[in-house]
C-alpha cells in the first residue's frame, strides 16, 4: 500500500490535492453559470425587461471595468485569508441575484444589481487564480486548471441554452434563472469552504504595508517590462472592446426586427 501511495503521488494528483480538485470542480459549476449571465442578462434587457442602449452600455462597462479592481485582491489577501475572498463575495452575489425576484420593475434596477454582481465577481475570480499555486503542485497544475475550466464551460453552456429556452417560454418568470444561479453560488461557496488547504499562508507579509505602498510597488514591477506593458495594453483594449461588442448584439438584432 505504501508503494501504491508513492505511485499515486508520482503519477497522479496527490490525494489531498485530488480532493481539492473535486471540491473546486463543484464550485466551478456556479462560476460557469454566473459568467454566462452576462450575455443572458443582455438578452433579457432587450427581450423581457424593455431596456435601452444605455442599460446595455452600463452592463458591459461594469462587466469589463470590474477588472480594474484586481490589484486590490493581492492587498486584501495579506489581511484576510484568500479563501474568504472567494467565499464571501460569492455569498453576497447570491443574495443580490435573489433580489432580482423582488417586485421592483424597471431595467435600471436590474442593470445595477447584475452590474454590482459582476463587480464583486472580480474578487473570487482573482483569488481563485492565486489559490491555484497553493492547492495544486506545479507538475499537475495545468491539468487541474484545464479540468476546472472545462467544468465551468459545460455549466455555462447548459445555463445559456436552458436560460434562453426559459426566457422564450416564461418571460414573466425570468427571475427563476437568476435564482438558480444564486443557488449555484451558495453551493459553490460551501464546496470551496471544504477544500483542504496546507498550513500557513504564502500571501501573508511581515510588517505593515499600506495600500498606497503596495500599489506603488506593483506599479513599478508592472512597468519594468516595456514589451509586457505594450502587450497588456493592446490586450486590454481588445478584450474590453470584445465585451462591449458582445453586449450590443441584442441591440443590433433588435433593430433588425
Work out the number of β strands: 0
Largest sheet: none
Please, what is the average pLDDT? 82
Number of helices: 11
Which spans of ≥5 residues are poorly predicted at pLDDT below 50? 1-11
Termini separation (Å)? 67 Å
Order of helices and strands: HHHHHHHHHHH
Work out the strand percent. under 5%
**Helix-and-strand structural type:** mainly alpha
Helix/strand layout:
Layout: H1 2-11, H2 15-47, H3 53-65, H4 71-76, H5 84-98, H6 107-135, H7 141-169, H8 175-193, H9 211-224, H10 226-247, H11 249-255
What would you say this structure looks like, in words?
The structure is a single chain. The protein has 257 residues and is an all-alpha fold. It has helices at residues 2-11, 15-47, 53-65, 71-76, 84-98, 107-135, 141-169, 175-193, 211-224, 226-247, 249-255. The longest helix has 33 residues, at 15-47. Residues 1-11 have low confidence and may be disordered.
Question: Can you give keywords for this protein?
Answer:
mainly alpha; 257 residues; 0% strand; 77% helix
In a nutshell, what does this entry contain?
With 257 residues, this protein is mostly helical.
Amino acid at each position: 500500500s505504501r508503494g501504491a501511495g508513492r505511485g499515486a503521488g508520482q503519477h497522479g494528483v496527490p490525494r489531498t490535492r485530488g480532493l481539492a480538485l473535486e471540491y473546486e470542480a463543484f464550485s466551478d459549476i456556479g462560476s460557469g453559470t454566473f459568467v454566462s449571465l452576462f450575455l443572458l442578462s443582455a438578452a433579457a434587457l432587450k427581450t423581457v425587461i424593455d431596456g435601452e442602449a444605455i442599460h446595455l452600455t452600463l452592463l458591459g462597462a461594469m462587466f469589463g471595468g470590474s477588472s480594474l479592481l484586481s490589484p486590490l485582491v493581492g492587498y486584501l489577501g495579506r489581511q484576510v485569508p484568500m479563501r474568504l475572498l472567494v467565499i464571501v463575495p460569492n455569498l453576497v452575489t447570491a443574495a443580490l441575484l435573489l433580489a432580482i425576484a423582488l417586485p421592483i420593475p424597471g431595467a435600471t434596477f436590474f442593470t445595477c444589481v447584475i452590474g454590482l454582481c459582476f463587480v464583486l465577481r472580480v474578487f473570487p475570480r482573482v483569488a481563485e487564480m492565486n489559490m491555484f499555486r497553493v492547492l495544486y503542485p506545479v507538475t499537475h497544475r495545468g491539468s487541474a486548471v484545464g479540468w476546472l475550466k472545462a467544468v465551468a464551460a459545460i455549466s455555462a453552456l447548459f445555463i445559456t441554452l436552458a436560460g434562453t429556452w426559459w426566457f422564450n417560454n416564461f418571460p414573466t418568470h425570468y427571475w427563476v434563472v437568476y435564482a438558480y444561479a444564486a443557488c449555484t453560488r451558495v453551493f459553490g461557496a460551501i464546496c470551496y469552504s471544504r477544500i483542504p488547504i496546507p498550513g500557513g499562508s504564502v500571501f501573508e507579509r511581515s510588517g505593515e504595508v499600506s495600500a498606497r505602498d503596495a500599489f506603488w510597488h506593483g506599479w513599478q514591477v508592472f512597468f519594468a517590462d516595456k514589451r509586457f506593458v505594450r502587450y497588456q495594453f493592446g490586450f486590454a483594449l481588445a478584450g474590453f472592446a470584445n465585451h462591449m461588442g458582445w453586449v450590443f448584439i441584442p441591440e443590433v438584432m433588435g433593430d433588425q426586427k
